């Protein structure tokens, strides 16, 4: 008998929760293929290490962008391999709950469920990421009080107000931490004339990136390829430069939080001043982001103690109580 | 004629009763499923997930401590 699964199919990472066992897989959403034969060479962490370092015949790709499937066939193969790795076979077909951005279109929704069914799921249902995040972050969403969750992922940022097990207000933008990496890459290319890869840009973000000035800031030495000479070159970057480079992306995330707050009913709005907003997702780990949102909204911002796992843990809870919570699936309430 | 009228009236009454019972059951189903959903989201029901949260948080802390120890040297 197959154990049912919850999957957080993120732009950056894919996490799998198995009923009764907890999180059994946590890997980057990357797949490496032989360009000529179409054969899968690696998935997950192994494929991630190949990004930007492959010979011509190998391509390492992220099949999801902005929370949406950009390549249906590759996504299906990636899901099939992930399911195989957690023990799903032709004879054990589990029920699967998949977390997706709330703003995905009907076509994208069908693409995800079809991919999961073809990959071996007996039944595939979708749940909105902010709802799963709120459950996983242990917010009291069963009570008639305003709970606000901000989920900043690799490709999307979503803010939701949740009360009595339902979404009251929602705001989503297709901007996430990958856009921050891209902004850093563009800035270095434009201002310093060197090209750096997306992994290096991510490392710069993690080393000195911030959304607001923070204590004990330091500079970073960055190596890349000089665009004029083609030779390797080293430059020194400051935190101020990175803040300037990522300002547009950060502003758009903060603006979406403000828009969500303005959509919330007044009775729930007052709850936020006391209870605060909860930040989840890998993008929420950007230094100074909580302080920046707090400064601009004048509402306390708290970090979930499991920002990276909150979504899959929430979906895992749904799979543990499948019959009672199936009304929360996307489409079930409409 | 009277017989037909009685039959039609009986069928109509039975149909009305069947519809009202179905509606009542549906409304009860709605209430029950909402109650079940809220119960399944209660802190008691979420205890196992909360335990998962705590163990994941501990794992996060342990891995970040490891990362600090062996600081990487690529790119930056």
Automatic annotation (TrEMBL), chain A:
Keyword Cytoplasm: yes
Lineage of origin: Bacteria, Bacillati, Actinomycetota, Acidimicrobiia, Acidimicrobiales
Pfam family, one: MreB_Mbl
Family the entry assigns: Belongs to the FtsA/MreB family.
Record flagged with keyword Membrane: no
Keywords: ATP-binding, Cell shape, Cytoplasm, Nucleotide-binding
Binding sites annotated in the UniProt record for ATP: 11-13, 154-156, 202-205, 282-285
Cellular compartment(s): Cytoplasm
Main function: Forms membrane-associated dynamic filaments that are essential for cell shape determination. Acts by regulating cell wall synthesis and cell elongation, and thus cell shape. A feedback loop between cell geometry and MreB localization may maintain elongated cell shape by targeting cell wall growth to regions of negative cell wall curvature.
NCBIfam families (alphabetical): mreB, PRK13927.1
Quaternary context: Forms polymers.
BP terms from Gene Ontology: cell morphogenesis; regulation of cell shape
GO molecular function, one term: ATP binding
Listed name of the protein: Cell shape-determining protein MreB
HAMAP family to which the protein is assigned, alphabetical: MreB (MF_02207)
Coarse class of the protein's main subcellular location: cytoplasm
GO terms under cellular component: cytoplasm
């Amino acid at each position: 008998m197959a154990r049912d699964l919850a999957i957080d199919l993120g732009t950056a990472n894919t996490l799998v929760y198995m009923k009764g066992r907890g999180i059994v897989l946590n890997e980057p959403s990357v797949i490496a293929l032989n360009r000529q034969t179409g054969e899968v060479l690696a998935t997950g962490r192994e494929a991630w290490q190949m990004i930007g370092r492959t010979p011509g015949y190998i391509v390492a790709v992220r099949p999801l962008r902005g929370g949406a499937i950009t390549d249906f066939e590759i996504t299906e193969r990636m899901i099939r391999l992930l399911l195989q790795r957690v023990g799903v076979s032709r004879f054990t077909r589990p029920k699967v709950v998949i977390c997706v951005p709330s703003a995905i279109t009907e076509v994208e929704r069908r693409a995800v469920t079809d991919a999961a069914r073809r990959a071996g799921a007996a039944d595939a249902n979708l749940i909105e990421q902010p709802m799963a995040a709120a459950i996983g972050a242990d917010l009291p969403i069963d009570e008639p009080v305003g709970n606000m969750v901000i989920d900043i992922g690799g490709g999307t940022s979503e803010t939701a107000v949740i009360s009595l097990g339902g979404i009251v207000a929602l705001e989503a933008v297709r901007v996430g931490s990958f856009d921050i990496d891209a902004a850093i890459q563009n800035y270095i290319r434009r201002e310093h004339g060197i090209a750096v890869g997306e992994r290096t840009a991510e490392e710069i973000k993690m080393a000195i990136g911030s959304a607001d000035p923070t204590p004990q800031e330091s500079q970073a030495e960055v190596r890349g390829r000089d665009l004029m000479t083609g030779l390797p070159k080293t430059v020194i970057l400051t935190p101020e430069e990175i803040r300037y480079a990522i300002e547009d992306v950060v502003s758009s995330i903060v603006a979406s939080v403000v828009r969500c707050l303005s959509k919330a009913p007044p009775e729930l709005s007052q709850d936020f001043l006391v209870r605060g907003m909860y930040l989840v997702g890998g993008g929420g780990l950007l230094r100074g982001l909580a302080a920046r949102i707090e400064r601009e909204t004048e509402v306390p911002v708290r970090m979930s103690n499991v920002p990276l796992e909150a979504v899959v843990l929430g979906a895992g809870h749904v799979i543990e109580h499948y019959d009672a919570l199936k009304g929360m699936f996307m489409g079930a309430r409409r | 004629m009277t017989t037909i009228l009685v039959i039609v009236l009986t069928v109509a009454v039975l149909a009305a009763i069947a519809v009202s019972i179905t509606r009542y059951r549906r409304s009860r189903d709605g209430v029950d499923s909402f109650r079940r959903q809220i119960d399944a989201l209660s802190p008691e029901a979420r205890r196992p997930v909360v335990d998962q949260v705590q163990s994941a948080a501990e794992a996060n802390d342990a891995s970040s401590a490891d990362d600090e120890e062996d600081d990487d040297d690529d790119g930056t």
